[in-house]
Amino acid sequence: MKLLVSFKRLSITLILFGTLVGCTINSTQPNYDLDSHILMRSAIFTQRELINSLLDDPTGTPSANSATLLNSYCDLVKRKVIYISIDNLPQQCSDLEINHQTLSCAKKFHECTTLCSLRTDSCQSCTTKAKRCLE
Question: Could you tell me the pTM of the whole model?
Answer without folding.
Answer: 0.73
